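Final report, Chapter 2: Outcomes

The project's central promise was a pipeline that accepts a single protein chain and returns its three-dimensional structure in a standardized token representation, suitable for archiving and comparison. That pipeline is now operational. To close this chapter, we reproduce one record exactly as it appears in the project archive, with the input sequence first and the structure output second.
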Amino acid sequence: MKLFFHAVVFFLMSISLFAQSDANKGQITGTVFDQKQAVIPNAKISVRNTATGAVRDVVSGAEGQFRVVLLDPGVYDVSVNSPAFAPAEYQGVVLNVGSAVNLPVTLQVGTTTETVQVTAE
């Protein structure tokens, strides 16, 4: 019984310490839309900490939503890419301790270029 009590106390202390470490982090969330406000699933979102250069990549879900969690406080550059759309860049996104920044993204239809190479024999 004493061993069980110590295990429970250790478990509760671990949860408390984990929660405290999460409190020092932040998150960037958002939804990716097209020009007509339709959601864009499977868009690639890259979040780069400008101070450390650390990059986190996520993909938007079926409803166009994304969430990058457990980010250190700091300044971030965010890029969003999806086929057939021009990339979107957001620079200087400030993330404070314990904050959540909501970043709605609207992608513009990209231009497609096609190259035809002809070789004469």
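Archive annotation: Confidence is low (pLDDT under 50) at residues 4-20.
This record, like all others produced under the grant, will remain available to the consortium after the project formally closes.
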